[in-house]
Amino acid sequence: MISVEEALEKVLSYVEVLEPERKPILDCLGQVLAEDVYSTIDIPPLDNSAMDGYALRAKDIRGASESSPRYLVVVGEVAAGSLPAQEVKPGTAIRIMTGAPLPEGADAVVRFEDTDEVNRKLSGGDLSHIGILCQVKKGSDVRGRGEDIAKGDLILKKGKVLRPQEIGVLASLGRSTALVIRRPIVAILATGDELIGVDQPLAPGKIHASNNYTIAAEVSRYGGIPKILGIGRDSVQSLTKKIYEGLDADMLITSGGVSKGDYDIVKNVLAEHGEVGFWTVCMKPGKPLAFGVIRKTEGGKEKKVPHLGLPGNPVSSMVTFEQFARPAILKMMGKKILAKPAIRAIIEDDVVDTDGRRLFVRVSVTRRGGQYYASVTGPQGSGILTSMAKANGLAVIPENSKGVKAGDMVEVQMLDWGEEQGDVKKLPVVSIVGKSQSGKTVLMEQLIAEFKRRGYKVAALKHGRGGMEIDQPGKDSWRFAQAGSDAVLISSPDKLAFIKNVDRDLDIEEILPTVGSEFDIVLVEGFRKSKIPKIEVHRKELGDGLLCSSGELSAIVTDGSLDTDIPQLPWGDTAKVADFIEKNFLLKSQGSASLPPMKGKV
Ligand code: AMP
Ligand code: MG
User: Fold this and answer.
1) Which of 170, 248, 447, 518 is 20 to 30 A from 178, comparing alpha carbons?
2) Is residue 194 within 6 Å of ligand 1 at its C-beta?
3) What's the pLDDT tens digit per position in 22-58?
């Protein structure tokens, strides 16, 4: 059996970023830009008005107010799209519309609402003069030339995923086309004698071939172009013919015919025309998976089309599509973020993992009171596609975990969130705070030992006010620092230390990235002003007052009892404190044993 990660790595190693193509900008939504885009123009191209009003000289209306208006001679009018025919000389103004170029001589615009225009019109007066009712600064309501984009600037970088706003920016630069990585064409083939088309009436023993539609819709969702080849029958002739129809695609996805005891036809046909490996992946649903390449000759050259053979059960094919086909399509499109965003959620049902594989449980995720909850969407049979229709996430229950209990924290892949959203599943960090002499350090020691005992990888962080003992005068590391190096690393067979010079007390958010992602939890002593979850240690003998306000605390560890809504945990019972942290901040223990090497030819 191979792990999900190994299978993904292998699949990705067989797909390449596709070549760029130039096409109309409106067809580029969601594609990756393959060129740096510089501006050849200023935007806006001229100083212009941000309001409907009067263009004037700020100097001329200094001191103007409703009780003491300044009167100017109106010498003309300018609308958006035309150029001013007059210039604003001292004591004059030009009526101006939003977007119209600012006339020569003017340096500000005053909105209609701040003039006597309406009253003037009501009282039958003409607009040869205008009363200005407020003073404004130079530049007021003027949009400066090049204030958005300056000529020559790099506006969009290669690699950018084009969203509606980037398409708009390209349009404003006067570009009707863009160079983008082309979308992959994905050929899709269902296999099985029991399958009939959606437009055909059901006959005994037959079912509608839904997988083609699910997969085609997924391909489109992730930016590929689906090419449905239809249904291949469980015969060499039929399958060979269909597979050849798919060879002008960038990838072939089949569903069905990969499980043990099934006809070995898919395997035989593929082996004949390329290489194929059958994997058992440590996941459920979706254990059997075929992966290989089909050879074809194109312009006298041999090319290889990657083939992914998904299991036939509708849920299995969708879950394996999400884990393997989706990242492959994104890679071909030139995207860099391939992982589905994952969150941490409290699972609301017990889930049993009987055979040690990684479970992908269909869940419906809701957010209540700042916390995500995941509830299982009914029976989880791999043929029950409605369990997928009710779901917006896949809870990932680690292999060898035996399952989870309702109330446990789990990782959930969010099916409807875009990859660009990034991972929101951060390294869990909990800080132990408290007045001096409250026993913070003792609790830290006990918690570290307790989490180690429970099998977690722990990092501990101490905020030291004074110097650092590690940086001893006279030692080589100290001498390197004295010589001016900005950071010193000391490595020995059993330890690595990293000492970096900083010019101020760092925030915890700045420190955490250096901890790395290999740990399951970071226990912090101090940093009480930070926003990380905090547990305060309270001792009766130090008085009733707390160091932190109740809104800042997740729990209190105390040897007394306090009048507060915050959860209170007994001082001296480290297991209870660890339970609390585990339940509220940690994922169910990974416990991932080393996995046996993978089988298969590819
Ligand atoms: P297989 O992987 O071919 O053994 O198929 C496993 C199960 O999935 C069988 O019950 C098939 O009938 C079903 N199945 C296979 N292909 C499809 C499809 N395109 N749409 C719906 N169900 C399918
Ligand atoms: Mg079949």
Assistant:
1) 248
2) yes
3) 999 999 999 999 999 999 999 999 999 999 999 999 9
